[in-house]
Amino acid sequence: MIVLNKHQIVTEQFPNGETKVKDFDQLILKNNLIEFTYQEDGDLIRLLFVKKRLDETEAETCRLLIRYMPYSRMDRKIEGDLFTLKYVSEFINSLQFDTVSVVEPHSNVTLELLANSGGLYPALDWLPQLMEKLDFSESDRIVFPDKGAAARYINSGYENSCVFEKKRNPQTGRIEGMELKAGDIPLGAKCIIVDDLCSAGGTFLWAGKILKEMGASAVYLLVTHCEPRIFKGNLLDDDSPITNVFTTNSMMDTKHPKINYINLTTESYV
């Protein structure tokens, strides 16, 4: 989905699958902001068409806000697989945006590959509000499911935090175990797991079960990006150790009793 200056660009599809983009001349300003929400690969070609149309006008600047960077998990060359994040980044660079803002990039590699880019980390803003809402005390804990999440939010400023370490099967990539490597869980502690991305939620199920076994009274998940695949896993089941999920609509907006959507307003970050 493409939004230009707060208005969604209207697109249709020809019978053969080609994209038709309705002209949007009335939406073009001197200084423009494109908000890019990736839902499928066709959104990349839509982004191309919109930016090329802007280039034909007298627009002076065009900034890009990427709500979720596609292919961001493929952030290194793995034997047998393509380094697709590099290719997508090169494609976006070729469109020559004045600035590119990425909401919660999965790793710093995204920002290294994208020209004129910067990361936005709204979870660091939401976390104090959520802690206040849940009436956090010194005996409660912020939990990072792995070293990557701990490094991503290293500037969060919270001393009462814990870090897990995941053990994966090298062939399948599936999690085979988790271990608390840093911090402690006081009996009755409320815990908030913080990360950038949730797919089916296996990582958070593992962490939640361990936290409950260690004596946590409630476990919440704060994750910026949440894929629709969450509904195919067991994270939202009644007997799940996760009480509630707090996320944005960067990838979906399907309603569920356990999911609470946090509004990501463009004005706050760009």
Kindly provide the radius of gyration, computed on alpha-carbon positions and rounded to a whole number of angstroms: 20 Å
Percentage of residues assigned to helices: 10-25%
The biggest beta sheet reads: 7 strands, mixed
The beta-strand count equals: 15
What is the CATH topology of the largest domain?
Answer: Rossmann fold
What is the architecture of the largest domain at the second tier of CATH? 3-Layer(aba) Sandwich
Shape: elongated
The fraction of residues in strands falls at: 25-35%
Q: Please indicate the count of domains.
A: 2
Span between termini: 18 Å
How many distinct helices? 7
- Derived structural class: alpha/beta
Weakly predicted, low-confidence segments: none
| Mean pLDDT, all residues | 90
| Largest sheet strand order | 11-10-9-12-13-14-15
Order of helices and strands: EEEEEHEHEHEHEHEEEHEEEH
> CATH class of the largest domain, anyone?
Alpha Beta
Describe this entry's structure for a reader.
The chain is of the alpha/beta class and 270 residues long. It has two domains: 2-120, Rossmann fold (3-Layer(aba) Sandwich); 122-268, Rossmann fold. Helix content is 24%, strand content 29%. It has helices at residues 42-55, 84-94, 108-113, 123-133, 147-152, 202-213, 266-269; strands at 2-4, 7-8, 11-13, 19-21, 31-36, 61-66, 99-103, 117-120, 141-144, 161-168, 175-182, 190-198, 218-226, 242-247, 259-261. It has a seven-stranded mixed beta sheet with strand order 11-10-9-12-13-14-15. Strands 2-1-5-6-7-8 form a six-stranded mixed beta sheet, with helices on one face. Strand 5, helix 1 and strand 6 (61-66) form a beta-alpha-beta unit. It comes from Sphingobacterium paramultivorum. It holds the Pfam family Pribosyl_synth. This is Ribose-phosphate pyrophosphokinase.
